[in-house]
Design brief:
Layout (H helix, E strand, L loop, with lengths): L6 H15 L10 E4 L5 H18 L3 E4 L1 H5 L4 H7 L6 E10 L2 E11 L2 E11 L1 H18 L5 H6 L5 E5 L6 H11 L3 E3 L2 H4 L3 H13 L15 H13 L1
Length: 238
């Protein structure tokens, strides 16, 4: 959607239209789900404020989830089904953080209903994050149990890194990924890799099923531009 309205102006009308489209009433909701970061500072604050307002008005719990956790659902089926043959499939979720940095994390779906985070969310340069993934793949080979000679020859061959998020869809990012991981890297197509509301809904339901306590404190991996400038000014004055 491209218009002159801000997020705060569009969000409530969009929610109203969505609820009307499925013939629901807000009072029928069991809980409120919201992404609490990392991402756009303004977008996070608007989303959290809206979620908290709705939760208070409806007397419902709020489940705040991480954007990078949500993106892991983009490759959930591929990764978990691939794990059935004991081949390590990792899901790297990446958002463009600007300033030559990524917001990035890495996961492994053990089954369709079980996920582990192997690299927690971080703000990192693309080169550093990809090096970390390459080191993980090497460690996976070392830690594999003793197998038959034939299996040993192919051990690690099926290791794959599935990439999702807006940070991996430009040509420069793809080139970096290919240089570091080669054929072990699979960048999902845009229609699957980009953030979706359905991924957030699945993550909120997953958090509730895993008995994560409700809460929606913002999750920032670095200072905003305004906060950085204010901090620098304060340090210069001292």
């Amino acid at each position: 959607m491209h218009d002159q309205k801000t997020h705060s102006e569009r969000l409530i009308p969009f929610l109203d239209a969505l609820v009307a489209a499925v013939a629901w009433r807000l009072e029928e909701l069991d809980f409120i789900g919201v992404v609490r970061g990392p991402g756009s500072f303004t977008g996070i604050r608007i989303g959290l404020a809206t979620a908290q307002g709705l939760a208070k008005a409806l007397d419902r719990p709020v489940f705040g989830v991480l954007s990078l956790d949500c993106l892991s659902w983009a490759a959930r089926s591929l990764a978990s089904l691939a794990s059935d043959d004991c081949s390590p499939y990792y899901v790297a979720t990446i958002l463009d953080a600007r300033k030559n940095e990524w917001y990035a994390a890495c996961y492994r779906w053990m089954t369709l209903h079980s996920r582990v985070c192997v690299l927690p969310p971080r703000a990192v340069t693309p080169a550093d994050f990809l090096r970390k993934l390459a080191q993980m793949e090497q460690l996976e080979r070392i830690e594999q149990p003793r197998q038959t000679k034939q299996t040993e020859q192919t051990a690690g061959h099926h290791t794959k890194f599935l990439f999702a998020g807006d940070g991996v869809l430009n040509a420069d990012a793809r080139r970096l990924i290919t240089c570091e991981l080669g054929e072990k890297a699979v960048v999902l197509p845009p229609e699957q890799a980009l953030p979706r509301g359905s991924y957030t809904a699945l993550e909120c339901a997953y958090a509730r099923e895993m008995k994560v306590l409700p809460g929606c404190a913002p999750f920032y991996l670095r200072l905003s531009e305004a906060e950085s400038k204010l901090l620098n000014q304060h340090m210069n004055i001292q």
